[in-house]
Amino acid sequence: MTGYPEGVFRRRSASAAPDSNSAESASPEATEATQPKGYTPKKGVPTPKRRESEATPRRPVKAPETRKEAYRAYRDRLERQRGTTARRSGAPKGDERYFRQQDLGKARAFARDFIDSRRSASEFFLPFSILIIALLFINIPLAQLGVTYVLWPLMMVTLVIEGVMIGRTVKRRAAEYFPDDPAVKGVGMYAAMRQLQFRRLRLPKPRVKIGDDPTPSGHS
User: Fold this and answer.
1) Average pLDDT of the segment spanning 122-144
2) Is the pLDDT of residue 33 over 70?
3) Contact call for residues 112 and 206 (beta carbons, < 8 A)
4) Cα distances (Å, whole numbers) of residue 95 to 65, 147, 214
5) Residue 104 in contact with residue 183, Cβ under 8 Å?
């Protein structure tokens, strides 16, 4: 004989049964579905896999079944690549849809024409720099001294003088032709930087030939 009332065990067993049933019925999927967006589970609770959390898993890309579909997909991909290349390079000529933001405006167009219509020593800066670097590897002390103390300073002085002169000239003339264009403010530096580039590497591509008059139409 234990001495305990029989009703105690009945009440405890009856109350434990619903708790176990509710714990089994509350699955992890149902519990997580009722949580608000951005809810982070507590520590100790396994994080559901991405495959389980996604309602509709991603479908694989359908491969072309016929030669015609494969050719169409290849042609579309090639056209997208050509469009990206055209936007990056600034081609075709004269189409402002492919220009960068700093290339837009009539003042900037005049600056490009002004630089492209003439030759300058600054446009040979890149090949001349390569030549100077090559001469420095010659094991002749007199040649190295001449390159270091004569050719290199002379080139830098030439670049600075040409840049200042061309920048002032282009800015003054652009302000006369296009006084209302906000791009006139930095057109001098824009022209000086374009002058440093080799003619074939300039973007947008030159639209005038050497010796042409860069004066815009309608201005004298």
Assistant:
1) 91
2) no
3) yes
4) 39, 43, 18
5) yes
Enter the pTM of the model. 0.58
Answer yes or no: are the C-beta atoms of 126 and 200 closer than 8 Å. Answer: no
- Structural tokens at position 202: 């300039």
- Name the 3-class secondary structure at 141: helix
Contacts of 90 (CB under 8 A, 6+ apart): 98, 99, 100, 103, 203, 204, 205
Residue 104 tokens, joined: 């837009």
Task: Decide: helix, strand or coil at residue 115.
Answer: helix
Integer Cα distance of 194 and 186 in angstroms = 13
The Cα–Cα gap between 54 and 61 comes to 18
What is the rounded distance in angstroms from the CA atom of residue 216 to the CA atom of residue 220? 8
